[in-house]
Design goal:
The protein is mostly helical. Helix 3 crosses helix 12, helix 3 runs antiparallel to helix 13 and helix 18 runs antiparallel to helix 20. It is globular, with a radius of gyration of 22 Å. The chain starts with 6 loop residues before the first helix and ends with a helix.
Length: about 450
């Protein structure tokens, strides 16, 4: 018999989920979107919310609905080797490759850069990142509940501080919204949609799902239906908070361009807005809170990634992985925030479709009786489209022409795949493959074989 949870219980779990998702780095992307979208900000932010809020919620629910032990368990439905490689690549993406260095870079951009000037930027970033990842390393070697406690204090502090800033932005905008940049002028929704990938929250949701489910079970809810319902209600709380914050920051960004200028990243937008409304004190307060929030996020990511790889390679100690990932993240951080974002986008264009398709398959799995045929076929088709999207995005980011073989594939995909130019060329083929293979999987002969394998 499940315990009946109160609204307060759902709110507590929802706030925990919000804290898991809300790395301070997420602040910079809606701010930049707002600046570049200008008068098209509302259309763009709607696309952003689909991938930045909706998909993470579905990712959490997919883990619960599929009754998987973790991401590796779910993705191993394709194949055990795929499950291992996909999970490892996802951890590296939300860990030392991109999200972990981004915590240090965002901390510096928002918290330190405005106070030291351009002349000292390189040495300033180096010194700051040494201190930042030094502290993260020391705490990650012996993680305690102190970090969780600090996180519980910081989340409300960020919300209150941002709330004051966003109210000021709505009551007294810095300026008028300007004309959108070219990409937001023609494809505001789809550009916002793919910009939402930058939060990396849909990827993280596949890791966080089991944490939320464990929290719900500790409150006395254990039936599959009860766990799913409680997870959904708690997830809606977190999703609503994220949506409000993202929308407010995007609006602030859209009204800042005439005053602050068009920024390369969203970090200076936030620090500039804080200084505009509240002077040095406001900018300093925001800086301190964001640095601390980024630090707790960095520690959490370091611990989670190190624990995963230590489980994969038990002969290498947990502490060795902590040291390796901390040093690697320190080096990547010094490439600068703009470069980290530039190189992360091609990887996300490759990984996100695979993650989205896995989430869809998790929900549809009972319909096709969990047949491996459907998982394998859909992932293969998605892979061959998303890998091209990733490579195309990489050459574009580097400002080089596509090799002839790649360009011929891009031209072919553009001709035959709807929405390919919007980064969604994989969607219709994946859905068609799911439909066809589901019909095959439900045929009597195939169902009999697959059901016997699944039960075994």
């Amino acid at each position: 018999m499940d315990s009946k949870l109160s609204f307060k219980s759902y709110t507590i779990v929802g706030m925990m989920l919000f804290a898991l998702f809300f790395g301070a780095g997420n602040l910079i992307f809606p701010a930049q979107l707002g600046q570049y979208a200008g008068t098209n900000v509302w259309v763009a932010i709607f696309g952003f919310l689909v991938t930045g809020v909706g998909l993470p919620l579905l990712g959490i629910l997919a883990i619960g609905y599929s009754k998987s032990n973790d991401l590796q368990d779910l993705s191993s439905r394709v194949h055990p080797v795929y499950g291992l490689v996909f999970t490892a690549l996802l951890y590296l993406t939300i860990g030392p490759f991109f999200a972990l260095p981004r915590t240090g870079a965002v901390s510096y951009e928002v918290g330190v850069a405005p106070f030291i000037g351009e002349a000292n930027a390189v040495i300033g970033l180096l010194v700051f990142s040494l201190i930042f990842f030094g502290i993260s390393l020391l705490v990650s070697l012996n993680p305690t509940k102190m970090v969780d406690s600090i996180g519980k204090i910081l989340s409300p502090a960020i919300l209150v501080t941002l709330g004051i800033l966003l109210v000021a932005a709505f009551v007294k905008p810095m300026g008028s919204q300007e004309a959108p940049q070219p990409v937001y002028a023609s494809d505001a929704f789809f550009t916002g949609f793919t910009e939402g990938y930058n939060t990396m929250d849909a990827l993280a949701s596949l890791v966080f799902g089991i944490i939320v489910i464990s929290a719900v079970r500790k409150l006395g809810v254990n039936s599959p239906k009860g766990v799913l319902t409680a997870t959904l209600k708690s997830g809606v709380v977190a999703a609503a908070l994220l949506a409000i914050v993202y929308t407010g920051i995007a609006y602030l960004g859209s009204t800042s361009t005439s005053t602050l200028g068009l920024m390369e990243t969203g970090g200076p937008v936030l620090s500039g807005a804080s200084d505009y409304y509240f002077g040095t004190f406001g900018a300093t307060l925001l800086a301190v809170i964001i640095i601390l929030a980024c630090l707790t996020t960095a520690i959490g990511l370091t611990v989670a990634t190190s624990e995963f790889f230590h489980k994969l390679a038990p002969k290498i100690s947990y502490k060795t992985f902590v040291f390796i990932f901390s040093v690697f993240s320190l080096i990547v951080t010094n490439a600068g925030l703009a470069n980290i974002i530039t190189y992360s986008i091609p990887v996300l264009m490759f990984l996100y479709p695979l993650a989205i398709v896995l989430i869809i398959l998790a929900f549809l799995s009972p319909l096709f009786r969990h047949a491996q045929l459907v998982y394998v076929s859909t992932i293969i088709v998605t892979f061959f489209i998303s890998i091209v999207d990733g490579l195309k995005t990489l050459t574009s980011s580097l400002g080089v022409n596509n090799p002839s073989w790649l360009q011929s594939i891009v031209d072919f995909y553009t001709t035959v795949l709807p929405l390919h130019n919007n980064g969604l060329g994989w969607l219709l083929p994946a859905l068609i493959v799911i439909a066809i293979t589901t019909v095959i999987a439900r045929s009597k002969k195939h169902v009999k074989v697959q059901t016997a394998q699944h039960n075994a």
